[in-house]
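PT: before anyone asks, these are the final sequences, not the draft ones from last week. 752 residues across everything. Please model them as a single complex and drop the result in this thread when it's through.
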Amino acid sequence: MWSVDDAALERIAIGAGVLGTGGGGNPYLGRLMAGRLLAEGATISIVAPEDVPDDALVVSVGGMGSPTVSIERLRRGDEPLVALRALERHLGRRFTHLVPGEVGGSNSTAPMVVAAQTGLPVIDGDGMGRAFPELQMETFAISGVRPTPAAIADPRGHVVVFDNIADAQTLERYARAVTIQMGGSTGYAFPVMTGAELKRTAIPHTLSLADRIGGAVLAARATHADAIAAVLAVAGGHRLFAGKVVDVNRRLEGGFARGELRLQGTGDDADSMLTIDFQNENLIARTADGDVLAVVPDLICLVDAETAEPVTTEVVRYGLRVVVLGIPAPEQLRTAEALAVVGPAAFGYVDVAYVPLSGLYGGGDGSLIRHRLGGP
Amino acid sequence: MWSVDDAALERIAIGAGVLGTGGGGNPYLGRLMAGRLLAEGATISIVAPEDVPDDALVVSVGGMGSPTVSIERLRRGDEPLVALRALERHLGRRFTHLVPGEVGGSNSTAPMVVAAQTGLPVIDGDGMGRAFPELQMETFAISGVRPTPAAIADPRGHVVVFDNIADAQTLERYARAVTIQMGGSTGYAFPVMTGAELKRTAIPHTLSLADRIGGAVLAARATHADAIAAVLAVAGGHRLFAGKVVDVNRRLEGGFARGELRLQGTGDDADSMLTIDFQNENLIARTADGDVLAVVPDLICLVDAETAEPVTTEVVRYGLRVVVLGIPAPEQLRTAEALAVVGPAAFGYVDVAYVPLSGLYGGGDGSLIRHRLGGP
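LR: through. Structure below.
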C-alpha cells in the first residue's frame, strides 16, 4: 500500500493523459480536485490488487460522457460519490475498495477524488489499461463481471440506478441515453465485484504505470533529456510518426466526439501524411497510401513533439507539432474474446484486421513492416 | 370497498377506452390478464379515496410508451409488478395501495393486474381523469407530489430506478429515453405518495365513472337503445360531429404516435369536414373553416357511430363511421396551474386558447357557439 501525494497526482495525471490515447477526458480536473482534498488533510491510499482480500466489495467509479462536453460543462465534483452512495443504498452494503474503470484520461484521477472523500483505498489496476469510449469495453465486462447494479448521478444530484441487466452493451445504451438527457456528463458507480473477481479481471498495476510514465516525462523535462524516449522506455512501444496537425474534423455524435485528424509529416516523415480516426480515443493510424501503422486496441498516443505532453482529441488543433506513439495493448485486450469487443470491427472498421504492433514492427531491427488496409 | 369481477373488468375496459380520448393504450390487454388472474382465484378490491388512511403508502403503476408499439410488442404482463418491487426494495418499505396514473386507456386496467398479483387494493381515482401522453400531466405532479423515487422495468426484467429528481418533466425525459432504448414499452411504478397526498391530488371516483360508462354502453347495446346517448348521460358532454374517416396521417415521433385524422361529415354535418390532431391522445378538433370544436384538456372521444365502441388512434382507419364526443375535463385539469401543463400550449398549440366545452356550448339551448382558431 502506498499513499498518493500531490507530486504523485501530477505524475499520474501526465501518465493517464498518455494512456488516454487522445480520449478519456482530461485527468487534470480530478487531479486538481484530489489535490485540494489532500491539502485539506484527506489521504488517498493505493493498494496492489494482489493485496485485496477475496471477499472485498469493490466498485469502479468515474465519469461518463463526452470529453468535449465535460470540458465545457464542469462537473460539480461529487457525481461519482453520489452514484456510489446510491448504489450502496440499493445494495444495502458498503464498499471496501475503489478501482478505476479506465486508467487513461479522467477516470484515473476521478477515483482518487472519491477516495479522498470516503477514505476508501484505490486498487492499483483498471479495466482498460488505456481509455475506451464504451462500458462494455472494460475487462470486467469482457471477463464476465455482471454490469449491474449500476448507478449514475448528474450535477443536480439526480440519480438513476440500473439493475438486472445481464449485458454491458445494454447497460451502455441505457446509461448513455440518460447521460445525454442529463446534459452529457455524469458520474458513475459500477460494476460491483468481489476482491476475487477484481483479481481475476483487472489489468494490474496500471496506476503505477501511469505514475512511472509521468515521472519519466517530468524527469526528462527537468534534465532536458528526450521526454518521448523516456515515455517509450517505461511504456514500451514505438514512435510511429512525427508531424504537424493540418486538419481536424471533429463532431459530436450520439454523445461521442468522433472525427479524423491529419498530420503532415516532418523530419524523417516529411514526405508522408498520416490520418488518425478517433471516437473519443484514437482508433486507427494510417498513411495517405493506406498503410495501417497501428490499430485499436493498441494505444495510439499523440504527444507534444518537445515536451511529450499528451494531446487529447478535444484540444488538438491546427499547427501543433506532435509525435504519434504506438504502445502495445495489455495482453488482456488482445485475446479473441476481447478483440470482439475492442478490436477495429467493434468500432465499425470491418475491413481492417487487427495486427499487433509487435507484428507490424516485426522487422527484427524494430523497423516498420507496412500493412495495407484490409490486412497484411 | 368493492370487488372487481369479470363483468366489471369488461365495463371498466369500455369506459376506459372512451376516457382514453383516442390514446392511453388498449385497456383490453390488461382486462384479459386481470380476468385470467380472477379466474385463477385472485381478487381485486377497489377502495374509495376517502377511505384511504392518511398514512397509507400509495404508488401508481402502469405502462409507459407508445401505444403503437405496445400493440406490436405485447407486454410480458408483469413489468409494472417488477417496477413496483424494485421501488419497494429501494424504499425499504412495502406499498399499501395502488392508484391508476390515468383512467383512460390501458393504465386503467394495468393496476388491476398488479392488484391481482399482489393483493393490494386499487384506489377509485386517478391522476388524469382521462389519458395524456406525458408523466408531468398527472394531477399528482401538478399538485406537487415528488416524482421520484420512480422505477421502470422492461419485458426482460431490466430495472431502472430514478431518484432525487425534483420535477416530473425531467423524470419524463429520462424515463422516456430509457423506455425507447428498452424497445418502446415499459412498466412503471411512481409516484410514491401518502394517503393524505393521494386524497389531496387525485381525481376521485374515476374507475367508478369508467365502470358506469361501460355499463351504460352495454345496457344500451343489449336493448338496442342509443349507446352514444347513454355515454353522454353518464359522462356529460356533447356530440361534436358525426362523420366518416377519410384520412389518417400517423407517424411515430420520439416515442409518441402523432398525426391528424380527417372526417367527412354525415347527417347534419354532411357539409363539413373535421380535423382532429393527436399525440397519442386527441388534442384538438376543428372544422375545415378553422372553427375549434374542442380543445385539450377537454376530452375528444371517437366512438363507433352504432355501438359507441371507443376508436383509438392506433386502430382508426379509412371508412370508419364515427361520432366525435366532447366531454368536459375534470375541474382539476382546468385550473390555471393545470392548463400550463395540459392545455393546448403545452402541446405546441400556442395560437389556440383553451375555451371550456361549457363555454363553447354556452348558447343556452346547448347549441355550439363556434370559435375561430386563435380565440373567441
